[in-house]
């Protein structure tokens, strides 16, 4: 007995891997998770509207899991298949209706690998209702890791799905009875909860079943925003436009004709005129034969039918002509490049790859300077005027925030935005060049703020409170007498973020003595936010804020003597703490506790309390600053008028898409999507809103075309700078005037030889 025990112990020690336990890398964890998901996908079957019948059958059979129900149905199927009187490969309702232990009128569809590659559009693989367990409608973090949610996110088709050709599928649906069990209409998730760190080699492991009823096959493809860019159907499923004489279908041998050909921007009306045009075969003047000639002007294609003597018989252009011989395609392409927030150099590179003729960069800049930028400015002024009419004479709380055009301290432009707090409408956006602040980019934000606040005041808007970040120059400006009637508040998010940075920094000092304070960082920051939310005065804020010094040392009731009005017994506002909490309290008067006391009672922090009493946040304004990046990238250089116009385009985009409704599913529930924050390493959910309509763009394009049609001068004219253009102060940003080019070349050659 002892020998056998020793032998078993020896064998177990030999099987155990020696050395440090293996720690999977992030890539290995993702790979294992991907493999687990592929195994989960193989164990799903869709049942659709037969879910109630499935559950009823499970109750009638007296079984507890879906695995047992499936076993009964499969046993019944193969038993019917084994009967000699059944000649069909798929049993019908009558074939199994005599079984006492199986439901009546049930048909089956046996999938195959060749069939599973088709029918992607008609049989979507997204589940409209999550198969994860949710209590009281709350979304748990584990819900984001369920097999069905991952299937929705990746868009992979389950391998157990039944696929058939379009013709056989149509006939099958026609003969389908009301009792047909469609395996695409329900999800059977056998994965349960799976952890990528778990060892899946346990032989006793039996997965659980989760059922999810799926909506109709005509599901919206935008159910999840992040859909894999995979093919959603067979190319032959669409209308057969390629059938008929005159339609050329390329092959491998004729591929060179496609690669050497040139596409063009052609308008439909012009193309119809070409089709209907009566082309003469001979010249009416000299009766000589007519030849076809082509020419490219900008983005337009010209066809000319000319005889050998130079007589023009017919002429056709792919685009309508505007006044002064400007092609409409050139104007529209230039307008689309700017209004969509694109950079023309990228558009030009795209056209080169396509071999698509477009305008050159000099023509684009002339069109942009003469028609695009003035139209955008006028359109914004009209929109801003109508917007401010709703706030004239009213008390308004505005949010303000600045944005530099480039990272670091070498910015050229600053744009400052004022947003109305309640409606989130942008009232004003100011852009300045650092040449207007003596080439000091650090003074740009203050100058923009002052100019924007003056604009709102002159427009008749009664600004009673302005919310900004803790900008030192703006804070000093708001203390002046001219702004005495305007309350200045700080953004609570920036304030708590800076507080958290201080706690993290001090907890890493003095070796390990302050390390226990690091665990309380989140609690201290949340408590500061809570104090700003419910406090009405500085004294009330201080009394509540100082309470964190007692709470962290397990003192939940104390005598307050910080202010005369609040000398009394004070206690924490939280309820009973859970007995199983594992966060260790700090030791009173320890190094960590004293470090926290220095932060909490910091004099500068106390002096700034009144800025946070209203608990204002500029988060919506921060979101708009990200939208500006879509129109004015920080990696491209713009002239002052173009940079101003691009910022105004972002403001128009924002204001015209306020109040978008949240999309709903067929059952009336709202649609959500998952987002991951890398900094906080947490998953969260956001509502999926309606797509943007850009209803302001057609009116803006109409204004651009109208400005061109009403222009009697054209683009070839001297450039006149605006009165406040910073290029009037200095032609370039360098503090030293540039030398002539030939002088620089001569100096360069001298440097190379010396």
Automatic annotation (TrEMBL):
Q: Which domain of life is it from?
A: Eukaryota
Organism lineage string: Eukaryota, Metazoa, Spiralia, Lophotrochozoa, Mollusca
Protein name per Swiss-Prot or TrEMBL: Uncharacterized protein LOC111112579
Species annotation: Crassostrea virginica (Eastern oyster)
Q: Disordered: where is this region? A: 8-41, 90-139, 151-174, 218-247
| Compositional bias of kind Polar residues | 104-115
Gene name of this polypeptide: LOC111112579
Residue ranges under compositional bias (Acidic residues)? 219-240
């Amino acid at each position: 007995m002892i020998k056998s025990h020793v032998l078993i112990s020896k064998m177990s020690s030999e099987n155990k891997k020696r050395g440090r336990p293996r720690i999977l890398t992030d890539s290995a964890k993702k790979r294992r998770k991907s493999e687990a998901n592929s195994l989960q996908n193989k164990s799903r079957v869709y049942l659709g509207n037969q879910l109630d019948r499935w559950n009823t059958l499970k109750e009638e059979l007296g079984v507890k899991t879906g695995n047992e129900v499936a076993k009964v149905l499969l046993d019944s199927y193969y038993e019917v298949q084994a009967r000699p009187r059944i000649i069909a490969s798929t049993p019908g309702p009558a074939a199994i209706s005599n079984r006492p232990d199986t439901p009546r009128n049930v048909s089956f569809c046996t999938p195959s690998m060749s069939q599973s590659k088709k029918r992607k559009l008609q049989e979507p693989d997204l589940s409209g209702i999550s198969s994860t367990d949710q209590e009281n409608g709350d979304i748990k973090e584990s819900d984001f890791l369920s097999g069905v949610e991952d299937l929705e996110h990746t868009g992979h088709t389950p391998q157990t799905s039944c696929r058939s050709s379009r013709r056989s599928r149509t006939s099958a649906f026609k003969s389908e009875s009301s009792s047909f069990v469609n395996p695409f209409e329900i999800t059977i998730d056998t994965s349960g909860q799976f952890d990528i760190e778990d060892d899946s080699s346990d032989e006793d492991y039996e997965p659980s079943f989760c059922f999810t009823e799926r909506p109709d096959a005509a599901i919206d493809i935008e159910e999840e925003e992040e859909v894999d860019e995979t093919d959603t159907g067979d190319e032959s499923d669409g209308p057969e436009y390629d059938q008929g004489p005159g339609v050329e279908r390329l092959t491998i041998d004729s591929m060179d004709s496609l690669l050497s050909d040139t596409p063009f921007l052609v308008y439909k009306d012009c193309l119809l005129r070409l089709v209907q045009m009566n082309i003469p075969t001979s010249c009416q003047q000299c009766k000589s034969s007519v030849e076809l000639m082509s020419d490219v002007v900008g983005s337009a294609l010209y066809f000319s039918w000319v005889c050998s003597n130079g007589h023009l018989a017919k002429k056709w252009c792919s685009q309508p002509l505007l006044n002064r011989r400007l092609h409409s395609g050139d104007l529209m392409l230039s307008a689309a490049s700017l209004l969509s927030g694109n950079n023309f150099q990228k558009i030009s590179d795209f056209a080169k790859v396509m071999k698509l003729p477009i305008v050159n960069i000099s023509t684009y800049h002339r069109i942009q300077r003469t028609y695009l930028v003035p139209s955008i400015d006028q359109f914004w002024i009209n929109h801003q005027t109508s917007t401010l009419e709703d706030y004239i004479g009213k008390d308004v709380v505005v949010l303000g925030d600045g944005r530099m055009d480039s990272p670091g301290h070498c910015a050229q432009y600053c744009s400052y935005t004022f947003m109305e707090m309640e409606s989130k409408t942008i009232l004003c956006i100011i852009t300045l060049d650092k040449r207007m602040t003596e080439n000091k980019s650090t003074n740009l934000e203050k100058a923009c703020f002052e100019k924007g606040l003056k604009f709102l005041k002159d427009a008749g808007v009664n600004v009673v409170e302005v919310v900004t970040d803790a900008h030192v120059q703006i804070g000093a400006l708001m203390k002046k007498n001219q702004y005495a009637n305007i309350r200045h508040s700080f953004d609570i998010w920036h304030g708590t973020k800076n507080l958290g940075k201080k706690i993290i920094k001090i907890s890493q000092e003095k070796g390990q003595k302050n390390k226990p304070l690091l665990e309380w960082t989140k609690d201290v920051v949340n408590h500061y936010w809570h104090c700003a939310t419910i406090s009405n005065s500085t004294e009330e804020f201080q009394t509540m804020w100082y309470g964190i010094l007692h709470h962290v040392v397990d003192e939940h009731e104390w005598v307050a003597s910080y202010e005369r009005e609040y000398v009394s017994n004070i206690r924490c506002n939280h309820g009973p703490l859970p007995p199983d909490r594992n966060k260790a309290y700090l030791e009173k008067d320890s190094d960590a506790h004293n470090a926290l006391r220095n932060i909490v009672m910091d004099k500068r922090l106390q002096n700034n309390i009144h800025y946070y009493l209203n608990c204002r946040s500029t988060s919506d304004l921060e979101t708009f600053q990200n939208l500006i990046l879509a129109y004015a990238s920080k990696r491209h250089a713009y002239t002052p008028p173009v940079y101003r116009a691009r910022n105004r385009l972002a403001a128009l985009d924002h204001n015209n898409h306020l109040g978008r409704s949240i999309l709903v599913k067929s059952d009336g529930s709202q649609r959500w999507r998952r987002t991951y924050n890398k900094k906080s390493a947490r998953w969260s959910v956001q509502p999926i809103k309606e797509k943007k309509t850009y209803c302001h763009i057609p009116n803006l394009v109409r204004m651009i075309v109208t400005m061109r049609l009403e222009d009697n001068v054209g683009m070839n004219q001297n450039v006149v700078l605006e009165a406040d253009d910073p290029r009037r102060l200095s032609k370039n940003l360098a503090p030293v005037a540039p030398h002539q080019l030939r002088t620089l070349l001569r100096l360069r050659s001298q440097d190379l030889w010396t």
